[in-house]
Amino acid sequence: MRQFLHAAVAALLLALGAGLVVPAVPAHAALNCNVPDPPPKCEDPPEPIDPSGALTGATRVPAGVRVVGWATHPDRRPVTISVLVVGAFVGTVTTGTSGGFTGTVPARAGDRVCAVAHNTGPIVGSADIGCIAHAVAVDPVVAVDQFDRSGTDLVLKGWAVDGDTTGALDLHVYQDGAFTGSARADGPLAVPPAGYPEYGTAHGYTIRIPERGDGRTRSASTPSTSARAASTRSWGAGSTP
User: Fold this and answer.
1) How many domains does the chain have?
2) What is the model's pTM?
3) Are residues 93 and 125 in the same domain?
4) pLDDT of the residue at 88
5) 13: Cα separation from own chain's centroid
6) Rounded distance, CA 81 to CA 116, Å?
């Protein structure tokens, strides 16, 4: 009798199970944020968070342009800094653990250095962190600080620098297109040339040449040793630089 009851109960459960349909649910089904009411918790993706920072310095050095500043992001990951000269990208530097950055990027001729900070984490964001007015020269620069007459001679004093080297430059002087003298710009200056604090003070020159005729036009230049054009400074008779 007991066996008969067990068999009957088993048959009843089997019959009920056959009529019970359990819908299949995908293992990774996406939540429907509109149903039921109230809907399950659904969140929008995080908004991009821009880094913050500042470009605090830009200096011409023989290897290029040295940039200094800081940049941080809430996720505390390193921040990549894009450096631009007059709007043209020249290179990148990366912040350290404290958020500061110091690095050197290639030089490009221009008068304005800017920086853009980019977050390197999963939440992408970027922000301009400033610009600095700084003349970046890629050709030699000749400055004539003093131009005097001494008897029948002309005396020129000044300085010359090539941004790609701290070494001295050779100068050529011309009057009305004719070569009249040369000198080496390796004399001592009281301070480094303006805009070149990293280059030392051994860039001064003094040139004494005889004046030719009315000497309508004179110029001092650095002979180019590469495909770059030489830098030239010209002035007329009776004028001062």
Assistant:
1) 2
2) 0.65
3) yes
4) 96
5) 77
6) 6
